[in-house]
């Protein structure tokens, strides 16, 4: 696999294509942090006509891995995918390939991942870390991701089974997340096995993908209320971002809203 290495210093932190299968909007800000370590993507027809890809990667230790994932994960998936194949299996394999390459190139850098792929009326989701995916409509708000944190008892047990340790609510005393892309210096203590979920597309629903800069200060329901109240997904994403800043988040903020 040939990986597209866009230098983080010069490459955009939002990768997008003109053709989109659904109305979507993206908004981000560096917030109070000294550097921007998030990267996002929204790409239509990425693995054939009618396929759609959205993702947010929240970096730590630098933005190298987040940028690398944003520019390459969808390309890796597209190179492996053929109609009729198991989408979730290919997603797992794509993440593994990006993870292995990232560990070799930037062993002390990592990122979360929240990925949405829509194919044939089905929404496939995968996440690592604490970047969330929310599926909302006027009847319900459903989280399609899982927060992989070192404060989670189940995740702690998995870290220990892999030979790692938890110290001060951090893996090896260093990382607050238990799953990520990269972070090769932590070895097998960190997993790149994603949480997977899938649902059918429901007209009138909205998808929200956002990093923990949002969820540190806002509930799933609060963000969904903003998104559902605005028909323009770009406006919805911007308002969620602005509300996070208003609530004094201490992190970078990245948001994607998709109207189905």
Structural write-up:
With 260 residues, the chain is an alpha+beta fold. It has one domain (14-146, 196-259): PPM-type phosphatase domain (Phosphatase 2c, domain 1), CATH 3.60.40.10. 28% of the residues lie in helices and 28% in strands. The strands form three sheets. Strands 1, 3, 4, 5, 6, 7, 12 and 13 form an eight-stranded mixed sheet that branches. A five-stranded antiparallel sheet has the order 2-15-14-8-9. The chain has a two-stranded antiparallel ribbon with strand order 10-11. Strand 10 and strand 11 form a beta hairpin. Helix 1 (64-80) runs antiparallel to helix 2. The radius of gyration is 17 Å and the shape is globular. The model has no long low-confidence stretch (mean pLDDT 96).
Fill in the CATH topology. Phosphatase 2c, domain 1
Q: Kindly state the number of beta strands.
A: 15
Percent of residues in helices: 25-40%
| Cα Rg | 17 Å
- Percent range for β-strand residues: 25-35%
Alpha plus pi helix count: 6
CATH architect. name:
4-Layer Sandwich
The sequence of SSEs as H and E is EEEEHHEEEEEHEEEEEHHHE
CATH class: Alpha Beta
Helix/strand/pairing category: alpha+beta
Tally of distinct domains: 1
| Average pLDDT rating | 96
Largest sheet: 8 strands, mixed
Brief sketch in words of this structure:
Helix 5 (220-228) crosses helix 6.
């Amino acid at each position: 696999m040939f990986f597209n290495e866009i230098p983080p210093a010069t490459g955009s932190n939002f990768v997008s294509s003109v053709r989109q299968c659904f109305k979507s909007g993206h908004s981000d800000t560096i917030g109070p942090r000294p550097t921007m370590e998030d990267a996002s993507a929204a790409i239509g027809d990425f693995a054939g006509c009618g396929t759609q890809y959205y993702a947010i990667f929240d970096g730590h230790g630098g933005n190298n891995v987040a940028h690398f994932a944003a520019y390459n994960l969808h390309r890796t998936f597209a190179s492996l995918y053929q109609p009729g194949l198991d989408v979730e299996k290919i997603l797992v394999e794509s993440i593994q390939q990006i993870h292995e390459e990232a560990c070799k190139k930037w062993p002390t850098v990592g990122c979360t991942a929240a990925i949405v792929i829509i194919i044939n009326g089905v929404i496939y989701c995968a996440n690592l870390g604490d970047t969330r995916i929310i599926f909302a409509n006027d009847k319900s708000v459903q989280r399609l991701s899982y927060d992989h944190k070192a404060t989670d008892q189940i995740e702690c047990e998995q870290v220990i089974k892999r030979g790692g340790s938890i110290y001060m609510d951090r893996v090896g005393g260093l990382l607050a997340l238990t799953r990520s892309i990269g972070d090769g210096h932590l070895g097998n203590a960190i997993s790149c096995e994603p949480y997977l979920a899938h649902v059918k597309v429901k007209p009138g629903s909205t998808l929200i993908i956002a990093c923990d800069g949002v969820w540190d200060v806002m509930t799933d329901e609060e963000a969904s209320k903003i998104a559902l109240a605005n028909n323009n997904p770009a406006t919805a994403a911007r308002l969620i971002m602005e509300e996070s800043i208003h609530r004094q988040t201490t992190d970078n903020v990245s948001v994607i809203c998709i109207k189905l």
